[in-house]
Write a structure and sequence with these properties.
heterotrimer, A alpha/beta (about 220), B alpha/beta (about 450), C alpha/beta (about 350), A: about 220 residues, alpha/beta, 5-stranded parallel sheet, 3-stranded antiparallel sheet, about 25% helix, globular, B: about 450 residues, Urease, subunit C, domain 1, TIM Barrel, 2 domains, 19 strands
């Protein structure tokens, strides 16, 4: 439930907060997942990445990560929800390109959010990091959409409490701009220029039943 | 009203004889409307005679159309808190609450500080009541010294005092010792007295907070079992019959007590009983809020008891309604449940609650209300001038009621110094419009009459 | 990190089905929307809300497992007051630790040595806490219903840490959390989203005065478990037959095949003729010794909210033996209370929908 799962409804805060939802909304967008898989792109919605595009993009990022980490021990850490399957796909592809052991973890950042006050309680998602800690590892944070940067800041805060990685890198499938913090991704699937109140939605088969990245332009 | 008040003030300056009042078109006992003329502290005439009576010429006319006229209500069980707890109630504030509730006489329980266990204290309360002048305050004497259940108080001295005490009670505490109870019952026969028992076997109610049953089990509040009342009722009925004396059972709250009292009466024992308005309307589920405004002793009971009490009042097993008006200062109620003192306000809501529980359910008509709220309590307490028929020559102690009015109870609007009404925010039927004590209005237009308060 | 996926090749399918289901079930449990404003009694929690608390506790446990910094920033800047009118060091410490691990400012306000012991009313104390801006008040009180009263007087969240002989809802939650861990399987995904359906829990001892029993009966029933209460008749409340559980005076029969036995502390003042003749007779009828321990199902566990009267309601060999989860209950208490504080307090402070 990261704040940048943006998905269908990553619009301006004022718009999001007017909508009834069990999940929360914040400055960078809402993280509502219910009903996503049943929702098909409509006429105002443009498909930015097809399932084949996503496949190629993941392959490219996998190569880039392999090149960047070299021989150093690495850990791919997905940020729930959609960062986790993305991290698993990346690890699987990396293992094909360069056989080896690429562990994958999950890091829920909800308890590190800076916008809990005044909101209904959020469900926590899984956190799954090595018993041996993260000290000395190159940790690659994996998320679906990079937007305000607040999720990544929370993830870095959380990682610090887990130990001292050798380095932290960031891989995202989509960078849609509108950063609120001085954060940038090391590996970007696609840069998508968006208006502040456009909806960017990432669909992944593991969660949504199909692969696609769509943008619904603001009316 | 201004003319009425002015006339009344004038009459008081002239020596306390109230100006004549002609109540036009009210329905005595809710039956056929009739004019009623009050003069010289008495009912001068009823019906066609009223308007042609010589006193009618100067009389203040009160429009009684659509209203019900009853004999002034009599409460056998009131806590006025004076002396000792004047932050909760005084004789003056309690008298005002009583008058507004339609009462012309109240019996003041002796659990004051000091307890009303001597001629001196009962005379003080009696005198305070007369000075206030809104209702007749008739003190009840304590049965035992300090109400501590070990030694008989000077019952005969209180009986022969200016207060002429006839009813004795340690209310708030049970006269637990069976031998002492027997002696008290015997002793008061000499002056026609009656012992009013607060029936509670205290060994069964140690730490008790509410009725023992399903709700108390869930709320984790120590239970006050019905049997704790019934055990004493049974014992005392047997004692009263054995020594041939009069027993009055205070605030009957259980169906088992009803059965015991019915059996005792059938057996010929001189037993009378009262029920409170709150036990006729509210149930123990009120405790679920943990708001101690619902804490009372004996406790509120589940609905089957409530239904049994209503039937018993309707068919005469229970003789009367008594309020157990128990004011408590805020700090004694704005606490956790266990720390709160038991008791509820009752005087200003009693008639409406009885209407809701008994009249709207078809169990009592207005003649029945007159019986259980005026005639029977006056007779049990030995008040000759109250609870009398609405007839020429009788004392003009009367209550005028709007039977179709509905009103919402607001604690802040009550005349009592305390605020512990369990009916806050409830809409209740029937409203007291006017109360007359010996022909003088103590209440007009549902407010204290000008010049009435002292 | 039991379920750590490793990308060693095509054999490991990306995004395993189990993990995906796990995330989905957590997201679709509407118990989060169903959480109460205050936690005053176990009945404040629907089945879904109770599962939301237990799931959250699992996630918090995951989040801090094996870490060097066992602290989360979640309640930074919030004030949690522990208002303890009864001595209960273990419960107070548990709440204090839970609040501190969530970075809340914690104020311990205990009856001894404070204005409370000088006769200040609960209401005045409440108004004082209100003026200090407490976001949450954790209250322990000897009077049943005191937390209900407090909730009417303060703006913050009120959490009942045990009131008289009424309820102790966080104890029931930690017991349910412990039961779920032992009875539902070793992996988090086996537990998340699930209740305790069809599990049989036997609660033994002073039911009449036990807030632990009241909360557990309600919560375990909501979670689908079957509960049997066993006690001498003098220690069962009138009205217990209306509770959603069965009642027995025969401990041996009740324990047969049970999934868990929860032994309650028997207070000293109940002994010596008040409620039962002697401690010896109580132990003979209602104590858990090794023989009775063997009657419980092989996978079954032994619980006790503590502090234990060893040799009275529980034999030392059972308390320290296999399947005894007494110390685990204590550890789980901190995690579950963190979950409650996170869920009820983190959203405080603005317009809540």
């Amino acid at each position: 439930m990261s704040s940048e799962h943006v998905a269908h409804h990553s619009r301006a805060a004022g718009v999001d907060q007017g909508r009834a939802s069990t999940a929360a909304s914040d400055v960078s967008g809402s993280a509502r997942d219910a009903g996503r898989s049943s929702r098909k792109p409509d006429s105002r919605t443009a498909v930015i990445l097809s399932d084949a595009d996503i496949r190629r993009t993941i392959d490219r990022i996998a190569h880039q990560i392999l090149e960047s980490i070299g021989d150093r021990p690495a850990l791919l850490v997905g940020i729930p929800r959609r960062g986790v399957p993305l991290a698993r796909r990346l690890a699987a592809r990396m293992a094909q390109f360069s056989p080896g052991n690429y562990p994958v973890g999950a890091l829920d950042i909800t308890l590190y959010r800076d916008d809990l006050r005044g909101r209904p309680p959020r469900a926590l998602a899984e956190t799954d990091l090595p018993q041996t800690g993260v000290d000395g590892l190159v940790v690659v944070l994996v998320d679906d959409v990079l937007y305000s940067g607040r999720t990544i800041r929370a993830a870095m805060d959380a990682l610090r409490d887990h130990g001292r990685p050798a380095a932290i890198r960031l891989a995202v499938l989509v960078d849609r701009g509108h950063r609120q913090l001085p954060i940038r991704a090391d590996y970007v699937g696609k840069n998508i220029p968006t208006a502040f109140d456009d909806d960017v939605a990432v669909h992944l088969t593991e969660i949504d039943g199909f692969d696609a990245v769509t943008v619904e332009r603001a009316a | 009203m201004t003319t009425f008040a002015a006339a009344q003030e004038f009459s008081e300056r002239e020596g306390g004889r109230p100006a004549p009042v002609l109540i036009r078109g009210a329905a005595p006992y809710g039956e056929d409307p009739a004019d009623v003329l009050l003069a010289g502290g008495r009912i001068a005439a009823v019906g066609v005679d009223a308007s042609v009576h010589p006193e009618a010429a100067d009389a203040e006319v009160v429009d009684g159309s659509g209203l019900v006229l009853l004999p002034g209500l009599v409460d056998l069980h009131t806590h006025l808190r004076e002396p000792g707890a004047e932050d909760a109630e005084t004789v003056a504030s309690g008298s005002a609450a009583a008058a507004l509730g339609g009462y012309t006489a109240v019996f003041a329980m002796p659990n004051t500080e000091p307890a009303a266990d001597t001629a001196g204290v009962v005379e003080q309360v009696f005198r305070l009541g007369r000075e206030v002048g809104l209702v007749d305050v008739q003190p009840i004497g304590a049965v035992t010294v300090g109400r501590n259940g070990s030694q008989l108080a000077e019952l005969a001295a209180m009986a022969s005092s200016a207060a002429r005490v006839r009813m004795f009670s340690d209310d708030g505490s049970c006269v637990a010792d069976p031998l002492l109870m027997r002696r008290a019952l015997e002793y008061v026969k000499a002056f026609g007295g009656v012992i009013a028992q607060h029936a509670e076997e205290v060994r069964l109610t140690a730490g008790a907070q509410m009725h023992e049953g399903v709700v108390s089990a869930r709320l984790g509040l120590a239970g006050w079992p019905a049997v704790a009342e019934e055990a004493i009722v049974a014992r005392d009925c047997l004692l009263a019959e054995h020594v041939g004396s009069r027993l009055h059972v205070c605030h009957v709250s259980t169906s088992g007590s009803v059965e015991l009292i019915a059996a005792a009466k059938a057996h010929g024992a001189s037993v009378t009983a009262e029920v409170t308005p709150h036990h006729l309307l509210l149930t123990d589920s009120r405790a679920e809020s943990y708001d101690p405004v619902n804490k009372v002793n004996p406790p509120l009971r589940p609905d089957p008891h409530v239904q049994a009490l209503r039937r018993a009042l309707a068919d005469g097993v229970i003789d009367c309604v008594a309020t157990d008006h128990a004011p408590h200062a805020r700090q004694d109620k704005e606490t956790e449940w266990a720390a709160a003192r038991p008791g509820m306000l009752g005087l200003e809501t009693a008639l409406s609650v009885v209407c809701a529980a008994m009249c709207e359910t078809g169990l009592l008509d207005w003649r029945g209300v007159a019986r259980v709220m005026s005639e029977n309590p006056a007779r049990i307490g030995g008040l000759a001038d109250h609870g009398r028929p609405i007839a020429a020559g009788e004392p003009a102690n009367l209550t005028l009621i709007n039977p179709s009015a509905r009103w919402t109870v607001r604690a802040e609007a009550l005349a009592s110094l305390s605020r512990n009404t369990p009916y806050e925010g409830m809409e209740l039927p029937a409203r007291v419009v006017a109360t007359f004590l010996r022909g003088r209005a103590t209440v007009r237009d549902a407010a204290l009459a000008a010049g009435a308060a002292v | 990190m039991t379920s750590l996926a490793t990308g060693t090749g095509p054999a490991t399918a990306p995004g395993s089905v189990g993990a995906a289901l796990e995330t989905v079930s957590a997201a679709t449990n509407d118990g989060y929307a169903d959480l109460p404003r205050h936690l005053l009694a176990a009945s404040d929690l629907s089945r879904e809300a109770a599962i939301a608390v237990l799931d959250t506790a699992e996630r918090i446990d995951q989040a801090i497992a094996g870490r060097e910094v066992r602290k989360l920033p979640t309640l930074r800047g919030r004030t949690v007051v522990n208002l303890f009118y009864e001595d209960s060091t273990r419960t107070r410490i548990s709440f204090e630790l839970a609040a501190k691990r969530l970075s809340a400012d914690v104020i311990n306000f205990s009856a001894k040595g404070s204005s409370v012991s000088k006769g200040e009313s609960l209401k005045d104390t409440a108004l004082t806490l209100q003026a200090m801006g407490a976001d949450a008040v954790v209250i322990r009180h000897s009077a049943s219903g005191a937390p209900h009263r407090l909730a009417g007087w303060v703006a913050g969240t009120v959490i009942n840490a045990g009131d008289g002989t009424h309820e102790h809802p966080t104890q029931a939650l930690l017991d349910a959390f412990t039961l779920r861990r032992h009875l539902l399987g070793g992996a988090v995904r086996d537990r998340v989203g699930n209740g305790l359906d069809a599990r049989h829990v036997v609660i033994v001892g002073d039911i009449l005065h036990s807030r632990v029993a009241r909360s557990n009966v309600t919560l375990l029933h909501a979670l689908g478990a079957r509960v049997t209460l066993v006690a001498p008749p003098t220690l069962l409340p009138v009205g217990v037959d209306e509770w959603p559980c069965s009642v027995s005076y025969d401990l041996d029969a009740a324990l047969a095949g049970a999934d868990a036995a929860m032994m309650l502390r028997v207070q000293k003042e109940r002994m010596d003729g008040a409620f039962f003749p002697t401690a010896r007779e109580y132990t003979r009828g209602y104590g858990l010794d090794l023989r009775r321990r063997a009657l419980i199902a092989p996978h079954g566990i032994v619980m006790h909210p503590g502090p234990m009267n060893r040799g009275m309601e529980i034999a030392p060999a059972v308390a320290d033996g296999e399947g005894s989860v007494v110390t685990e209950q204590v550890a789980n208490g901190v995690t579950v209370r963190m979950a409650v504080l996170y869920l009820l307090v983190s959203g405080e402070g603005a317009d809540r929908v």
